[in-house]
Amino acid sequence: MTVTRRIATEEAFATPEQMAAIERMIAGGTRDADSPFWSMMARGQTPFAQRVMRQLLDLEDERLAIMDAHGVDMHVLALTSPGVQTLPAPEAVAMAERSNDLLAALVKRHPTRFAGLATIAPQAPEAAAREIERAVTTLGLKGVMINSHTNDEYLDEEKFLPIFEAAHALETPIYIHPRAPSAGMAGPFLKYGLETAIWGYGAETGLHGVRLLVSGLLDRLPRLRIILGHMGEGIPFWLWRIDYMHRNGSGRPRLERRITDYFRENFVITTSGMHGPEALRFCIELLSSNNIMWAIDYPYQEAADAVDFMETMEIAEQDRENIFHLNAERVFCIPPA
Ligand code: MN
Fold it and tell me: Which residues contact 42 (CB under 8 A, 6 or more apart)?
């Protein structure tokens, strides 16, 4: 059996200055819904926190060894959530630039093992648009990652349009990655720790995706490509009902196409951290395997599980090839092996 190229498309890293900034904010009493998770991580008192913090900050040693051990050819890397989006704008803009420079240098050292998605500071939309252009044209990064809300605002707001215009002009994809729910929705999630990956990240990011879908953004910028992780953050399961209610509701912009059409033509989903075979089969049937990319969500989840999931899926070999690497090569303009 020939071994399929494996490109993992939602892989996280951190920089020491990003972690120091998060620790400063927690020490200063930040109350956003990401704080409990990062307080736990910063205290480093659990084996999970110790391992993940170490693996986030490692770029070329343990990471490459684990990739090799599981036959993972490439990580498409992005600065871990919440990126620089919790920082004051000037500090965030400068840190995003340094992070992107560091990532580009890493990719240059390992061009067959790593590709990179740029970090931006949406809280400074014009600077963010300029950084997208620099990251793609000068640094050779392959897209942009934005970690859902920024200061409780969502990207369909008019002020963020320069970010999408820049991505659209460069035909570069924007990956909307989770973070904990914004202030207006976070309260009921906090009991039982539901604000994290167990449910809150998906609820937050699914809402974000639906806001973009109904906002009219994709009629204004019809070649825009949005990526959602975690098997589409729940949206695929809801598409029929969203279409039905959209036709029969009011108070929303009139759209040129059905929500399902935008989701099929403008969105790509990844399997990050969702290793349920029934969910993947459903998404292949609904969206086709051309719209699904494989991901691990390293280091938060295990490479072994993600590889095993994809290797043992009972699907057509063409579907496996599409999901393991062909779609990532197309969406991120990664040269074939
Ligand atoms: Mn992730």
Answer: 19, 22, 23, 26
Distance of CA 307 to the CA centre of its chain: 19
Distance from Cα 201 to the centre of ligand 1, integer Å: 10
pTM as predicted:
0.98
Q: Each residue of 89-119: pLDDT tens digit?
A: 999 999 999 999 999 999 999 999 999 999 9
pLDDT score, position 2: 60
Domain-located, residue 335: no
Residue with tokens 């990580």: 75
Q: Say if 138 falls within a structural domain.
A: yes
Q: Which residues are catalytic?
A: 297
Task: Assess if residue 109 is contained within a domain.
Answer: yes
For residue 96, being part of any structural domain is answered with: yes
Q: Ligand 1 centre and the CA of 139: distance in Å?
A: 23
* pLDDT confidence tier of residue 121, bands split at 50, 70 and 90: very high
Ligand 1 centroid, distance to 122 Cα (angstroms)? 18
Centroid of ligand 1 to alpha carbon of 8 (angstroms): 11
Q: What is the mean pLDDT of residues 154-168?
A: 98
Q: What is the CATH number of the domain that holds 102?
A: 3.20.20.140
Distance 119 CA to ligand 1 centre (A): 14
DSSP assignment letter at 60: S
Number of domains making up the chain: 1
| 333 vs 136: CA distance, rounded Å | 11
Token pair for 96: 């995003």
For residue 256, the enclosing domain spans 7-330
